[in-house]
Amino acid sequence: MSAHSTEATTIPTPPARPAAERGASWFGQPRGLVILFLTEMWEKFSFYGMRTLQIYYMIKQLQFSQADASLIYGLYAGGVYLTPIFGGYAADRWLGRRRAIIAGGLLMALGHFTLASESLFFPALVLIALGNGLFLPNLPSQVGDLYAADDPRRGGAYNIYYVGVNLGALLAPLVCGTLGELYGWHVGFGAAGIGMCLGLAIYILGGKHLPADRPRAAQAQPARPAEAVPSAPQGRGAFLPLLLVALTVIVFRSAYEQSGNTLAVWVDGGVDLQVFGFAVPVTWVQALNPLFVFLFTPLVVGLWRRAAGRGREPAPLTKMAIGAAGVGLSYLLLALVAGSSGGQPVHGLWLLLFFMLYTLGELYILPVGLGLFARLAPVGMGATVIAAWFLASFGGNLLSGVVGRGYAWLGAGGFFLALAGIAGCAAAALLALRPLLKGGGAPR
What we know:
The protein has 444 residues and is mainly α. The chain is built from 13 helices and 6 strands. 67% of the residues lie in helices and 3% in strands. Strands 1-2 form a two-stranded antiparallel ribbon. A hairpin with a 2-residue loop joins strand 1 (24-26) and strand 2 (29-30). The relative contact order is 0.14. Belongs to the major facilitator superfamily. Proton-dependent oligopeptide transporter (POT/PTR) (TC 2.A.17) family.
């Protein structure tokens, strides 16, 4: 994101320094990357810590029905992907990235602490969603500015940054979930708020290692020459296929996003979480997905690299279709297990196998889709196309809340079978769209 700063700001913005002068202190990367990594880690700890408890809190404490709780969960999850579109615009035009990040972090922390009052549940969700809108698009945009344009470390920096995302998501259910289950919901929510405050403190204290906001004049970037992406479709011919992909991703996400929603409801009573006599807290289940992201990402990337070396790497839409099918297969597994359980809790190993398949599918579709949108954005429409990806996330989360309302009357087995069908339809649609984006990646 491009942003500007003003001399009237009350938050001092550190002067810009060349990347080479910012030093290196962590795996040969600039110190600023450490600051951004830790800030993002604690923000995600805060964000996912609250979401780990949210569905259980609504049903058990606020006494919402499962259908209403699932719908509210989907509305909130959709909102946090809608507000970044406006937050990025506000940072570009008025606030600047640094002030937007600090304001967003303060709003999120306030929202988490506001959850201490049951009567302020909905205002608290609004505060968190608004804060996330200011925070989410602006922090990662600073990563690239730590490096010169030709710095070979630049590409790997985003991989390191993504580790921070998943580390926070891994720690959140283990800490906030445990505190919430043992000592009360508000203790868990409070821990999430403290995590956000820690992230903000790290960001402010480490500001001298971060790049300054770009001046307003930097918004006027020269148009990308058509030769830069010779194989990518241009103009409206590229935008329409990407729009169709985005609509397919909305359908896919309506099934994918059930992991913290209806799946969490089923796990609470439908899975035996006893391991060697130890009762695993139900909120810890939400740590399995980020854990497998850690374990499987190097394997998946290595597989693609070897395939590329042989000239057989699948095209992006083929990868995405495989991912959607993998998520569908994971839900089909649950449908068979839940449907044959006779109402008795199923063994926890089935849940472990589910998350293995589910995470592999995720790695094939969601990161690949974001990269596809960034790479094939028509000339002069880069921000619009990335916004469309955020809108797909918004629409998918919103639709997931509507879909989740069917859990109660379909039953676990029937509902998971329906989710498998939704993901399978998305996979088929992605395969059908391949001819429209033949120039969008690898040859197969």
